[in-house]
Amino acid sequence: MAENNHPLALVRAARGMTGVDLAREICAAAERRGLRSGVDKQRVRKWEVTGVTPDRESQEYIAEVFGVPLENVDAGSWPSWLPDVGVVPLGPASTVPALREALRASMDRSRRTVLSAISGTALITLAGAWATTDAWPEVTERVQGKTIGEDLVVLLEETSARLTTLATQERQHTAALIDAHLATVTDLIADGRYSPALGVRLHALAASLSQTVAWHRFDHGHHGEAGRFWIAGLHSAHAGADHDMGAALLSDLAYQASWRGDPRTAAQILERALTRTRHPAARSLLHLRLARALAPQGERRRTLRALSAAEHLLGVPTPDPVPAWCSWLSEADLAVDSGQSLNDLGDTRRAHQLIEEGQILLPPSRDKTRGVFLAYRARTHLDLEEPDLAAVAAAQSLELAQRIGAPRCVELVRGLVPRFKTFRDAEGVPELLAKAAA
Question: What's the alpha-carbon Rg for the chain, to the nearest Å?
């Protein structure tokens, strides 16, 4: 059977919906307006397979099903207004659809090809919408559903914090628990009865858990899933009017874009994220990531300006507590990422010095970051044609990553293997190649 690539079919499949499911949801949308719709699975098939255009009313119902604001619906341009697969547009009551989209996608790994389809254009558009749109009054008093009390929210907050702050070596075993916490919080937001204050805390918890889940997926190479969880967290943070957290999630999406070789998209996302970021430490991290996105593009002046801003902001005193998502940022990270940026600009010797300095400054507790830094150090040793020293750093990185369960770090080292093969006779290189191939 030929694959159905119609935009409606792709969006429907990404939501885990059959044609029958979509028809049922459309009819329910009509009923909420006191109207009736005659849409059934045969009508959905006509839209997706034979090219029939839904009438204006049906398009409005489809928009409601997928969380698209009505002002974005242009009936004459069907189906171009449909959301990109995996990107639920920001809008009233969009938090739960975004969270459930991420959770559904994660449960069905067989859709991996579809899950990788979020485009840079869609992410830039989402970042632009976040930067220019105030939060809707989504976090209001809920008067229907089962009552949610303070004790339950406190329990979820405390256990989630405990799970996400475990050492990396232990955290590799907690992914299923964190997923379950996020699913529980999503159901509470959707179906519970709670005060506005508890609603804000539930949305903040959903944003934080989404970010943690996303990084776990990213570290394991599940980029489509990671992107959806970051997007879901963005919806949650936006609903709670937490601009710094929203900027954090956009920054993570930008980091992923840089990692996957799309620094142009990363830079555009970060430029939009910086428009609403307030805390100096948060702005420092975003400027540092902006430098990392600009440097591969050869933007020397802008890169140095971003690095200067990151360095200045990191030391700015403020009475406000540092957001938890960037509390780890330190002089070590500044040094290493500055080094990486300078290396991309061709200043290899200075880059290597900064990476070595950062590795020395890094606290012992940050094992995963140490593994990444060692891989960066191996790269600059290779750039300086010091393969024996590069092999030592790469072997240390690989051993550490395998011990603590950090597959992204393993990927970094294995990405250097082709370069090591040109130095097969150098001391330590044959042993490294054998370890990397194991």
Answer: 23
